[in-house]
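User: Structure please.
Assistant: Input sequence and predicted structure:
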Amino acid sequence: MVNVHRIATPQPDRTPTDMTAAVPASEDEAQALRVYDRALDLLAFRARAARELRLALIRKGEPVPYVDRAIARLMSLGLLDDAAFARQFARSRIAGPGFSRRRLQSELARRGVARDVADAAIADSMVEDDVDMDETLERIARRKLRTMRSVGAPARRRRLYAFLARRGHDADAIRRVLERIGADVAGEELDAASGDAAATDPGDAFGSG
């Protein structure tokens, strides 16, 4: 009688990208559907860019291969579109808090939107909505002033300057609007206000205002 010795075949290590190959088809489909449904739930809660949604799912412990499949499926169906998201984001942040172009670029970059996509979306939104940034700046300045009636004039001017700077508006634009609305800020007062704003928002790091 001939003894047949079985030789064990080495099994390759599995990486996260091929984990789904070891999952039975029915279970694989169920996992993929579960992650896809969770992605839809996150989008229903609020709109997101593709990279932002991907990171949110991964942080919640979802396996990367299923996350990537869900993202690809959402994009193919037109349910996840960075350009559309960026346009919606730009419109809402200009109309509401009055973000500047620079602040919009910063916020979209933080959410994973490519710079060229963000720039095109911001430009389109401003053209389509006939946005005048000087008018936008004056609108939010007057609105903020109404909340500071009990604050003394010097402090009110400094706080208003810092508030507008946090929304990404540059010094020249802020000076112009302060002159138009009668906040006569000049000389040392203006320098002090500018210093307050710079201390609050170094570089491109913007506060919430």
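The first helix runs from residue 25 to 45.
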